[in-house]
Amino acid sequence: MKSRNILVGLVIAQALFFSCTGYRQFKFTEYKVNRIDIQGNKLISKEDLRTNIPGLKESYARIFSPRVYGFFEAKRKVKDSLGKSPAFIQLFSTPNPSLNKPYLDVTKEAIFKYYRNNGFLKNKVSLQIDTINTSSKLVNISFNIEENSVSTFSKKDSFLVDNPLLGKKIETYYSKESIISNNDRLNLDLLKKEKDNISHYLKNQGYFYFSNDAIGLKLNDLQDSSLLRVGIIYKIPDFKETNSNRLYDRLFRFGRASFVNNQYTDSSNIGVLNTNALSKLVTFKEGDLYSVDQLNQSLQNIYASDQFKSVSIKFDTSSTRVFPKVELVPNEKFNFSSELGGSVFRGIPGPFLTNSFKVRRVFSSLDYLDFSARIGFEAQAGFINTDQARKNLEVNLSTTLNFPKLFLPANIKQQLGALYASQTQIGFGYDYINRPEYLRTNFKIFQRYQWRKSPLKTFQFSLVDLNILNTNYPETSTATAFKSYLEELRLQGNNLYRSFNPSFVSSIHFTYAYRSFLPSNELQAGETFQIGLESGGSTLNLIGSKKIAFIENMLGSNQNIQFYRFLRFNFDYRKFKMLGLKRKSQLAFKFIGGLAYAYGEENDFQLPYEKNFFIGGPSSLRAWKPRRLGPGAYNSISNLIEQPGSILLESSVEYRFRMFQLFGTMHGAFFIDAGNIWTFANSKGEKDGYFTFDNFYNQIAVGTGFGLRWDFSFFLLRLDLATKVINPSKPMNEKWVLSKTSFSDGENPIEFNIGIGYPF
């Protein structure tokens, strides 16, 4: 009924247009394009062709007839020439284009080249122009495509290199670094990337003047005249320009680097550049073979010190040496920033203020001191009555001293080798939370080493991470009810109460992360891997009582101070594979796990609450509420209680695909999530949550669903609808619950998850 009303409205609107005398008398003075069709394409979609070839972006098939758009175009031209406002006729500001045969021939050639570039070397494209009738002067355009066979790389390649030493380098590159694989579809853009990679590889081998211009990559039609299996001829040199640099095959070594203060304004507060300190950030030595990666690594080290607004480089060369001259624009000694913002929770506004103050060159020419403070008065749900929102005061203070080097013994630094953006950080912080239920403080001291072995590999190692936590309860009914609530949870086996006992948590931890691509909302192929190791309370093993007396005296609490000892391990692996000929859809896979073991008998083998694993929520198993799944087959009486665990297994598979454009790009996704958490048998939790090798696989939870991702380039909005498939808390013969899915509050209600960015 609704669609019929819309159709009637359109008919009436057109009738009003057609009743105008001017419209009835209007005729085109030249032929116009009514529609553009693409026919014959099979392996390359019409969407792909319209996206990549400008002449095919529009089909010109629209609601109103071409005469309507042409009529308003003529009226607009008259009004514009008289200086009048075109008013509502701007709605029809995209008339059908005039027939332009030369432009259509250009589009035809672009289709041919696009197909050839994507491996269809023997494709054919024809153009057909059909006149609808001479009186209307409208034509339909058809591009007819014969794709024919597609060519693939054979990897039966040959080399023509004048310089024998350079030839050996090229063969080494070809065997270890080439981005072209056997049976890959021929792609001429891939050949351009191969040239870029060769040039970059040789610039790391001492060839300072080597460039893409010296490389020729040609298809070898002598091996296979049909060009179905294509080999490549690597020819060096293959200069096309007469003025190209002919020193492409000469080896160069680094000379001494120099540093220049390029500050043009008054820089009395900046001081003279400390060239000795800057030289220590340079990863190459005088006499080393030239390497563009080592040069960039050195520039990144200098820029990461945060002492300079810009870092650029120029070169002086001799017959065998490259002398880098690094030009620097120093930053001011002091920087202050302030941000006032707010949040809204259940209609209650909550303002917050964040201030940051940075002081550079405090103890040396390259260190800096960061002070940050955040004060917030924001609303949150109560612990006891979750339907009631209350404002809470939260204060966070921290100070961090940063040095652009690692304070480690020389032999250890030598073993680590050349590093990117290494840092040593020392700092302390203070957190204060004032809620109706409690007053909580956390004083922390930390030290961290951070470095990168390459732009893709990041390391962090902390020798000191100390946290002293204390909680006080005001003399109020709310605080009394909260303490009773914690005691009730303790009797149920939930160790949330430990988070509110006075505690001393110390640890040593190490993290390694690898990422084969740079983070982006754009779908891309690659993989990531992260592993973390942590040892908590290690020094307590040297103390007989496993406690530190002066910490107990400092807290002065009538409760026992908790000193934790534990070991924790976690890993995270993710793989992303592009699918389809267009490489526009993606299959994403995630597998994460962890193991945390508390060996402190003095705390009943319990972990600090923050060191537990949790599962469920928008970036985890989406069919369960955040942190509410598990442990094991345990069925919580209320899903208001977070469920901690010591063992974690979690995996997700998600198929992502492009849908349509709407103020951005809309993507869809189908996903399956699986996993659970468990506790050790020596814990005080419920037995249903214990991990056992002969039964854990029966307690794997499974959920599935569909999601939308709205990509606005600068951020991505995500909505996921998920339902349970296997619920481990059900009896063995009732775990399959997919058939009980509903939008209401039934046994298996659909969970709605809203988030920013991809779930993984």
Question: Any descriptors?
Answer:
Bac_surfAg_D15, 760 residues, D15-like, signal, BamA/TamA family outer membrane protein, membrane
In words, what does this structure look like?
By secondary structure, the chain is of the alpha+beta class. 18% of the residues lie in helices and 38% in strands. The protein has a 17-stranded mixed sheet that branches. Strands 4, 5, 6 and 7 form a four-stranded mixed sheet that branches. Strands 8, 9, 10 and 11 form a four-stranded mixed sheet that branches. A hairpin with a 4-residue loop joins strand 2 and strand 3. Mean pLDDT is 86; it is low at 265-270.
Please specify the SSE layout and strand pairing.
Blueprint: H1 2-18, H2 21-25, E1 32-39, H3 46-52, H4 66-81, H5 101-117, E2 124-133, E3 138-146, E4 152-153, E5 158-161, H6 164-176, H7 188-203, E6 216-220, E7 229-236, E8 253-254, E9 258-261, H8 275-279, H9 292-304, E10 308-317, E11 321-330, E12 334-345, E13 348-360, E14 368-381, E15 389-403, H10 410-416, E16 420-434, E17 439-454, E18 457-472, H11 477-491, E19 503-515, E20 526-536, H12 549-555, E21 562-563, E22 566-579, E23 585-598, E24 647-661, E25 665-678, E26 701-711, E27 716-726, E28 741-742, E29 748-749, E30 751-756
Parallel strand pairs: 1-3, 4-7, 5-7, 8-11, 9-11, 19-21, 28-29
Antiparallel strand pairs: 2-3, 6-7, 10-11, 12-13, 13-14, 14-15, 15-16, 16-17, 17-18, 18-19, 19-20, 20-22, 22-23, 23-24, 24-25, 25-26, 26-27, 27-30
Protein name: BamA/TamA family outer membrane protein
Domain Bacterial surface antigen (D15): 423-755
Keywords: Cell outer membrane, Membrane, Signal, Transmembrane
